Amino acid sequence: MASIEIDKVGKVYAGGVHAVTDVSISIADGEFIVLVGPSGCGKSTLLRMVAGLETISSGSVSIGDRIVNRVEPADRDIAMVFQNYALYPHMSVYDNLAYGLKNRGAPKAEIDARVAEAARMLQLEPYLDRKPKALSGGQRQRVAMGRAIVRKPAAFLFDEPLSNLDAKLRVSMRGEIKQLQRRLRTTSIYVTHDQLEAMTLADRLVVLNAGRIEQIGTPLEVYHNP
Ligand code: ADP
Ligand code: ADP
């Protein structure tokens, strides 16, 4: 777990698009921040800068006591969950969950224990031998979350993780993410354009508009002062 400090961050894309301008957010250890705002307001760009998938044009981002601007994405100790799952199609659920830990040379007993814990939390125990194509959309999204959880990262970054699911499944997965959040208390940044998702999950909401922070506060503060 770690705090995240986003300090006067800006992004100008080649060609001159100012995607993010002067954004500062202090995220406490264990806090769940939701980024909301209309399409094109800069949510994804901001998240990707924290992840190290996009260079930062100005300002700085720290995770814990490390300034990460110059840290390789692989060394940032964050895990991302995407809407398109990014699972390995030819591997079983178990192998999808275990892959990253195996690559890092974790001992077999530790891998088994972490995979079992994640599978239990996400109700994936009956499916560990299946390939992703034999899973439902919701189950696939649980495997994607499981891959993030087994890493025990300092922070989770969610990029519209539920937007490919049908409405009913979105509601139930929203509840599951809320439960995981209560259990794990991992510092999180969650991007969505779904207001209910934002209100349900956020400790604090950050409303972006044209690349700048328009409002920041608890869901009650934000939605009672529109
Ligand atoms: P959101 O996630 O809120 O929809 P984005 O961060 O994707 O917003 O985009 C913010 C702005 O930056 C938009 O105007 C978008 O067109 C622009 N943008 C995003 N990615 C690129 C890119 N790779 N090159 C140039 N402009 C981009
Ligand atoms: P896996 O792709 O299964 O996680 P690795 O952990 O070996 O396997 O991935 C290589 C590097 O890519 C890791 O060191 C890690 O920092 C980064 N990485 C892997 N998965 C994620 C993720 N979900 N979010 C962010 N970074 C990741």
From TrEMBL:
Keywords: ATP-binding, Cell inner membrane, Cell membrane, Membrane, Nucleotide-binding, Sugar transport, Translocase, Transport. GO terms for biological process: carbohydrate transport; glycerol-3-phosphate transmembrane transport; glycerophosphodiester transmembrane transport. It is a peripheral membrane protein. One of its GO terms (cellular component) is ATP-binding cassette (ABC) transporter complex, substrate-binding subunit-containing. Its main location: membrane. It is found in: Cell inner membrane. It comes from the Bacteria. Residues 4-226 form the ABC transporter domain. One of its GO terms (molecular function) is ATP hydrolysis activity. Belongs to the ABC transporter superfamily. This is sn-glycerol-3-phosphate import ATP-binding protein UgpC. The chain holds residues 1 to 226 of 366 of the full protein.
